[in-house]
Structure formats: C-alpha cells, structure tokens
Design goal:
By secondary structure, the chain is α/β, with parallel strands linked by helices. It is 38% helix and 14% strand. The longest helix has 20 residues, at 466-485.
C-alpha cells in the first residue's frame, strides 16, 4: 500500500514537471484570469445569461470574470461598513452620500481614482466622464467614487393605480396634489376589495412629504455628506445666499426657527412627522416585513408605492403582465413637477451625482475593475447589456432612444442599474412611459433646468466631529423608520423631544457649530 502511494506521488510530481516545461501552458501573470468582486445594494435576478454574453464579447481582451454579491438595502450601510473595516474581498462597491459615504471617506476606506481618468490608457472612461463632471463630484478635492447618474435630479413621487382612480369617480382623473392623493387613499380604504392604499418598505412616505426643491428655492439646503437620510437637519442661508443664518435640526426651539428669514420659519421637520403619523392608516400592515414595496403593488394588494421615475423603467409593462386591466399613474412629490410651466433654472443643484462606485483601499484588482468599467462605457451596446439585458431576449429597441421589455417579467434580468450603468451619455427611455413621465425626464435631462447651488462643491468634513457624527447617525437610525412609517402616532411629539434631548447629550451643538463654520468659510471663498 505504501509503495502504491509513493508511486502515485512520484507520477504526480513527474506530471507537474512535464506540464511546467510545456511552452503552450506557460502563461504570464498578465494572461491569468482575474476575478472582480462587485458588491450591490439590493437584489439581482437572472444575471447568468448576461454574464455569459459579457464574457463572449470581452474575455479575450479583459481576461476577467465578475463575482456579484448582494446585500439587502436596509442592512447595506452597516454591512458595507463591517466589510470595509474587516478588509473583506471587494473590488467595486456601491456607496452614496445618503448612505454614509462621507464617513467611509473620512475613515480612508476608498482609493483616490484620479489616475484612471483623463488617461489615454482608459479612453472610454475619459469620454464618459469629462473633467467638469468629475470636478463636480470630488470629495475634499479627491475622486473617491465614480459618479453614476443620468440627470442631476431624479423625480420622486407616488406610482398609483390610475384604473382604480377612474373607478372611484372622485372628480379628477389624475393626481396632482397632496389633497387629491389623500382623497384617493380614503377611497381605497372604503373599497370592499382586499387592497390597501400604500405599500412601504420600512421607510413610509419618505419622499412624498418632503419638498426638497421648494426648500432650496427658499434658501434651505441639505447638509452635503450628512443629509436627512442620516440625520434630520438643514443649512439656512440668507436671502442673498452669502451668509449662514443657522443650521437647524429636528426638535430645535421654536424661537430658533421663527428668527429665520424664510417661509420655512417653523419646525417643518416636526410638521412632516406629525402628518406622517396621521397617514400611517394608509400603509399596508405587511410593509415592515418588506424589502420591496413594489411587490405588493404588482400583486394588487396595494394601490400605490413610492419611487423615482428612473428606477421604474419596466413598471408599466410588468404591472399589465400581473394585472392585465391595470393602468399606472405617477404623482410627483415636489410641487414644481406638477406645474405645466417648467421653467429654466428652477432646480437648485450641486450638479453632482447621488450614487457612486468606489474601490476599497485594499482591493487587489483595482486595475481590472477599472478596465471592466472602461469596456462597459465604451458603447451604448455594452451599457444596454448590463442595464437592460440581452437585446432580442430581454428587450427590443423601438427607436434610437426608446425600448420595450420582452418576456415574462418574473423571469426577467435585473440589477440595480443606478449602482453600475447610469451615465449622462448613455440613456434609453421605456416606450411605455406616459407622456408626463417622458416630459419630466426630458426636463431634468436638460442642463438649462438647473441653477448651481451655492453649496455645490462643499461636503461636510467630519474629521473634527467624527465621534459626534457617528453617534448621532446611529441614534437617528433607531428613529428613522418609526418617524417615516408614522408608528409613534399621537406620541410623535414626545419621541421628537426624546430624540432632541439625546442628540444634545451626544454633542449636537458641537456639530452645529462645526457645520456653520465650514459652510461660512466655503461661502467666503466665493467658489
């Protein structure tokens, strides 16, 4: 038995020597296959055929394969931080200012990607990301993420069942105001069928009752890098937008708000949460168990859900596949987009993206990851492959800029494309979109629709307040869902007071002072 084992080992050794001497198998390190790991926030489905097509098109040149991993949206921020802290395998990760990206930058978790852009070795990245676009997406002068957006604002609002609205005969055939939306919800509640007005997914009416554009038009701006998804606070500028009047947070004294020179001289955040407590009656009882509110809408169990236009490219067709007689309507949350007069320069903007692809500092395949992105952004066809799937199988073009999905929606390829493919140079519009949706997409794609925010280019630097910001962000994460789901009901004011007290104990005044100082210094420099 021992002699047999020794003979086997000898043969294995001899075989390895012969293999090593064979010139045909002598591959240089550059020819060896690499694996690039991409971390997505959210679900993917039926990606294997698309990956096979990608390998068919690119393998001879790139010699790489993709390992796609996913994390559910509502645990993504915490799990991403844990993976980065542990230096777990990842080469491209999704992040965003609203996801806590500034904290990861302060913790030096991401590479500066400057060397890959305006670089002839990556010609397609050079074309897809011109210098002015990159300059608007720097963090403290560095390029810590690849900006992903098709337009500088994605219109958010409520998708609803237009066929139900017509059945209820409420005197209007389209929802254009909060009052009409509430009448629609009351009619759904009175409906004898087993259907609820609204499907949430642990964040309630997060987009619907916020008036972001109107706030900015009245000199009230979000805190770049620490927006109200992370902590409820805003920067208030003087009417000429050259001075910081104050930085206000949820639960501040009434006197602090009343001193402001703006129509928002009251605690508009508290007012919003009071309203949401009343609107809790409209939310489907299973919403807290959901990760995707769209599912209840498509199954006919909910009469509406909240989203952005760009995130629902297949909604109209998918809804009809599930409920053939159903029709979809869209109510934009911000008043501006319900106006028939969409004027130039009406949207204050940082002219930046709101989503980014980042490379962890410890990635061993950064060059390969960027080579993949250079391939991706080399053509509309390559972007189409990863955004829409295989042409002729998952979708067909109906014009140069429009398309229709194909096949069974339940078996359809999908990825969260806002985390990978979005770019102003590559865009298709679903042919099934309503004229209203197409008009809003056209308006927000036009650079003339925007004016540059006075805070464009500034992002909160947390190095002097890292401990306080971390504690406050963690604190708000415990209140966020109950506030937006309206779960506190009649006790909402009591919990706001509790939150405000705890915030003060965790150093909120130190943070307020630092933000005011940073913003005023930035304004004084006249950027």
């Amino acid at each position: 038995m021992k002699r047999t084992a020794k003979l086997l080992l000898f043969l294995i050794f001899l075989c390895s020597l012969l293999t090593g001497c064979d010139d045909k198998n002598d591959a240089s390190p550059n020819d060896q296959e690499k694996v690039v790991t991409i971390l997505f926030r959210g679900e993917v489905s039926h990606v294997e055929p698309v990956l096979e097509e990608f390998y068919r098109r690119s393998y001879d040149k790139l010699r790489l394969r993709l390992n796609i991993e996913t994390i559910p949206p509502y645990t993504y921020s915490d799990e991403l931080a844990s993976r980065l802290n542990a230096s777990e395998d990842a080469d491209l990760v999704f992040d965003a200012p609203w996801n806590g990206m500034s904290t990861q930058i302060s913790n030096k978790m991401y590479m500066d990607l400057e060397k890959y852009f305006n670089n002839d070795a990556y010609p397609n990245l050079k074309r897809a990301f011109p210098p002015e676009y990159l300059d608007a997406n720097r963090f403290n002068g560095k390029l810590y993420g690849i900006p992903l957006t098709k337009r500088h604002l994605d219109v958010s609002g409520i998708y609803y069942r237009k066929d139900l609205l017509e059945q209820y005969k409420l005197g209007f055939n389209e929802i254009t105001s909060q009052e009409e939306l509430q009448k629609y919800y009351d009619a759904v509640l009175a409906d004898s069928r087993d259907i609820y007005p609204f499907a949430s997914s642990k964040r309630g009416f997060f987009l619907t009752h916020r008036h972001s554009i109107d706030l900015m038009q009245n000199h009230v701006y979000p805190i770049n890098g620490w927006t109200d998804t992370l902590f409820p606070g805003y920067i208030v500028l003087s009417p000429d937008e050259r001075k910081v009047e104050d930085v206000v947070f949820l639960g501040d004294d009434d006197a602090r708000f009343s001193a402001l020179n703006t129509k928002y001289n009251y605690d508009f955040m508290k007012s919003e949460f009071r309203t949401l407590a009343q609107w809790n009656q409209y939310i489907h009882p299973d919403s807290m168990a959901l990760t995707n509110s769209k599912e209840l809408f498509l199954s006919g169990q909910a009469a509406s859900f909240e989203s952005t236009i760009s995130s629902q490219s297949d909604l109209h067709d998918t809804l009809k596949a599930f409920i053939p007689n159903a029709e979809c309507g869209f109510f934009p949350a911000d008043e501006l987009f319900n106006s028939s007069d969409l004027k130039p320069g009406a949207i204050p903007s940082n002219m930046d993206a709101w989503n980014y692809l980042c490379i962890p500092w410890y990635s061993k395949h950064a060059d390969e990851a960027m080579s993949f992105l250079d391939w991706l952004f080399s053509s509309q066809e390559n972007v189409d492959l990863f955004e829409l799937g295989r042409e002729g199988y998952d979708w067909i073009a109906t014009s140069d800029k429009e398309y229709l999905p194909l096949g069974n929606p339940k078996l359809k390829y999908s990825i969260p494309s806002y985390e990978l493919t979005w770019n102003p140079n590559f865009s298709r519009t679903p042919a099934s979109f309503s004229p209203k949706e197409k008009k809003l997409l056209e308006y927000t794609a036009d650079l003339r629709s925007y004016r540059v925010s006075p805070l464009a280019g500034w992002t909160l630097d947390t190095k002097n307040i890292a401990v306080e910001v971390s504690r406050l962000t963690d604190l708000y994460s415990r209140y966020f869902t109950p506030f937006y789901e309206g779960l506190y009901g009649d006790d909402t004011d009591k919990y706001i007071e509790e939150f405000c007290r705890l915030s003060g104990e965790m150093g909120l005044e130190t943070v307020r002072k630092e933000i005011k100082t940073q913003v005023q210094n930035y304004l004084d420099k006249g950027f």
